[in-house]
Amino acid sequence: MTLREKTQDIYNLIGEGKLLDAFDKYYGESVVITEPRGTWKGKAECRKHEEEFLGMIKEFHGMEVTAITSDEEAGIVMHETAMDVTFQDGNRVNMEQVGVQKWEDGKIVHERFYYQ
Questions:
Q1: DSSP per position, 41-94
Q2: How big is the CA angle at 56 (ends 45 and 14), to the nearest 5 degrees?
Q3: Which domains can be identified in the chain, with CATH numbers?
Q4: I want to staple 92 with a disulfide (CB 3.0 to 4.6 A). Which of 16, 57, 86, 114 is the partner?
């Protein structure tokens, strides 16, 4: 499976409500995740961050992957996604983001998200 296909599989799993399954399968033990709100280091800390994000969601309405590109040799994948969610406070938001992943030995070791 190419890195591009693995990233598509991650988003297929997320679309099925299996974000944590995708995280457990594809993220490395020393992963670092960075986004505008902060940086999390190590699989346990990053997984806790994902669990907290899921806890804020009341209802998931859908997700779309609008683009994926990869440099398989360099181990870099970039993806653009949009998610439509309602948060626990009732606020419905269409979240759009770009992510850049660094892969090593079949696992994501760094991922940076860009969004407004």
A1: ESHHHHHHHHHHHHHHEEEEEEEEEEEEEEETTTTEEEEEEEEEEEETTS-EEE
A2: 70
A3: 3-114 (3.10.450.50)
A4: 86
Alpha-carbon gap, residue 108 to 97, rounded angstroms:
18
End-to-end CA distance of the chain: 32
The stretches in the chain having pLDDT less than 50 are none
Count of alpha carbons within 13 angstroms of residue 111, beta-carbon side: 26
pLDDT in tens, 74-92: 999 999 999 999 999 999 9
Cα(69)–Cα(52) distance, rounded to whole angstroms?
Answer: 28
Stated pTM of the model: 0.93
Query: What's the Cα-to-Cα distance from 64 to each of 79, 80, 93, 116, rounded to whole Å?
Result: 11, 9, 14, 17
Taking the C-alpha atoms of residue 110 and residue 108, their distance in angstroms, rounded to an integer, is 6
pLDDT attached to residue 116? 82
DSSP annotation of 106: T
| Identity of the amino acid at 73 | E
